[in-house]
Amino acid sequence: MSNSKSLKIHNKSDKPDNIVIRDNNVIERCISIENSLPKFMKDYFIYLKGSVAVSTRLAYLVDIQFFCSYLVEMQELTSAKDINDISLEEFNKIKARDVNLFLGDYCTRYYKQTSKNTLIFENNNRALARKKSSISTLFKFMYRNEQLDNNITDGFNPIKLPKPQPDAIKRLEIDEVAKMLDSVENGDGLTEKEKVYWKKTKLRDKAILALFVTYGLRLNELRELNISSFNFSRGEFKIYRKRGKEVLMPINHTCELVVKDYIYNERPQSELLNDEYKDALFLSLQNKRLTSKSIRQLVKKYTSISMDTSRDNG
């Protein structure tokens, strides 16, 4: 008999269950990483918990875990065999130069051995800048917390970032947007194999693209939409931004029509779905909440048709 317990949600907040479950999964990952890190970082973990979004907290912890693993692997700044055993005294001896070597030399290209292969990892400047930010917050906090003698972050080398580029959907011309929406309407430009699936999901795809084009929603924001997110009588719908901020958006007549068309004429009836997905708006053919990856592939497919390019470049 299995000893595993199922997760039950007693949700007294204004957030829908799927947002609560999503955040809980991230929090559990955070706790797991924190348990693997040195105990002297506990105050920093409490600081992160109260000052940043759970997704940012996880990103910082992943980067700090990676930095600590590097220290153990190099064995130049610590004698610990496990990252949990790195001492505060050893951490206090780390210089800005050591972090600059980690970011500028090790992180740009590093190797990991598996039982079968040697894996090569490369980081671009954006990824390096995020790692720098994560490590900086740790060292700044520990200095303010009187755990470190010096604030070494002023000596970290700058990392040049490219100018932010608008995402692909915003680079489309008006006629290309029209062509994309025509494609999802009538299947033009799709392969015969793609048309098999298109016939089953065209109303869903049309609703996704209409919301994406009209409001510029992020993939995760689209993914987390529920039927209950929409209040058609008041002409609005609710989304949750990256930091968990709740935002009410006005829904225009065109988007209202395509969303209703999908809900009433293509989406499986909620009573036929597992409890976890009864309220989920966009479903896969397996009747599960559509993943962010699937939505990205869907958008790339239709934008590639409108731009007359390959699926990978869409």
From TrEMBL:
Keywords: DNA recombination, DNA-binding. InterPro entries: CB, DNA_brk_join_enz, Integrase-like_cat_sf, Integrase_catalytic, Integrase_recombinase_N. Residues 35-143 form the Core-binding (CB) domain. GO terms for molecular function: DNA binding. Residues 167-314 form the Tyr recombinase domain. One of its GO terms (biological process) is DNA integration. It holds the Pfam family Phage_integrase. This is Tyrosine recombinase XerD. It comes from bioreactor metagenome.
